[in-house]
Amino acid sequence: MSLNFSRTTLQTIMRPSEYEIFVAIIREIAGQYLDIEGILLTGSLVQNLELPDPIGVEFRGPMQKAYAKIVSRSQRKLWPHLDSDLDIWVMTNDVGGTAELTDLLDKKALELLAYLAEGPDRPLSEWIKSKRAALSEFYKNPDLYNAEWREDGIDNPWEAPHFRRELVRRVAVEMPEFCRRVNYYFRKKCPDNFFEIRVYPGATFNLRPEKIRVEGVIDRTPFPYFIKDWVKREQNALLVLQSDDPKYYPFNENGHVHSRVLADAIGWTPVHVDMLYAQRSNQNGRE
Predict the structure, then answer these.
(1) pLDDT digits over 240-249, tens only?
(2) What is d(CA 9, CA 274) in angstroms, rounded to the nearest whole number?
(3) Pairwise CA distance, residues 120 & 255, whole Å
(4) Can you give the pTM of this predicted structure?
(5) If pLDDT is split at 50, 70 and 90, which confidence band does 74 have?
């Protein structure tokens, strides 16, 4: 089952007719690209209105405890707030030669997690260094994007500057009342910085930053998360576009689930995923 607009917090700021316009804009812009596997909306504005009853989960063993620290449930925002924006995630098809990349990232995720579990009190600088050594060649690597995302010498295809420019232009013209509402209620402004667009190849879609504060600076070195800890079809994702035969979850409910290998190895169950929030505690530098 997938979440639909009428069941999300997005309807607090966007009218149903505006949502239809917005989806149409996204789909029309996406039609200029040949390799999009899917597009979803997520973030604090795309949450199921029906928050589940609170549940408690006991993390058992060093691997579960280490992963729970990485996931850092205390950071999660389950409701709109002054600094809310709208996250638009685009998944592209994988380029040639990357067929084994998901398996490789699964292996690296387990190796990194075992490293952290063996030394839970090791300095965060060592943890960050180990992630960089293992993952830097895969995260935001322009070579993993098809040529259409790198045209005109673009060296940051994950920010999709052409896609973003057209989206911002059309929203300003076609959804002025929505923008006025956003600009009244939120700090981020529409259409300027209210839309957070990120494009990632399918194979690396679960490589997401782990926010760690080190000496007053936020490090955003990624980790290959179990994808359902980031996006879950029935809780915090609106699927606005998908290809005819998507390969990966969440666009294919029965498709490849990123880092399921990790989840199975440490006994990370649906109950762990459903624990949407945890009281803020000492996160050992994690924001």
Answers:
(1) 999 999 999 9
(2) 18
(3) 33
(4) 0.94
(5) confident
Looking at residue 33, its amino acid is: Y
Indicate the pairing of strand 86-92 with strand 195-201: parallel
- Residue 49 to residues 6, 229, 236: CA-CA distances in angstroms? 9, 18, 10
Closest CA to 34 of 147, 139, 155: 147
Structure tokens at 108: 């690296």
Instruction: Output the 3-class SS for the chain.
Output: CCCCHHHEHHHHCCCHHHHHHHHHHHHHHHCCCCCEEEEEEECCCCCECCCCCCCCCCCCHHHHHHHHHHHCHHHCCCCCCCCCCEEEEEEECCCCCCCCHHHHHHHHHHHHHHHHHHCCCCCHHHHHHHHHHHHCCCCCCHHHCCHHHCHHHCCCHHHCHHHHHHHHHHHHHHCHHHHHHHHHHCCCCCCCCCEEEEEEEHHHCCEEECCEEECCEEECCEEECCHHHCCCCCCCCEEEEECCCCCECCCCCCCECCCHHHHHHHCCCHHHHHCCCCCCCCCCCEC
Q: Which amino acid is at 30?
A: A
The answer to whether 40 touches 250, Cβ cutoff 8 Å, is yes
Residue 42 to residue 39: CA distance in whole angstroms: 10
Contact (CB, 8 A) for 256 and 102: yes
Q: Taking all residues of the chain, what is their mean pLDDT, rounded to a whole number?
A: 93
Phi first, then psi: give them for residue 207, nearest 5 degrees: -80, 100
- How far apart are alpha carbons 30 and 33 in whole angstroms? 5
Q: Can you tell me the distance from the alpha carbon of 214 to that of 207, in angstroms, rounded to the nearest whole number?
A: 20
Close Cβ partners of 18 (under 8 Å, ≥ 6 residues apart): 175, 177, 178
Alpha-carbon gap, residue 267 to 64, rounded angstroms: 8
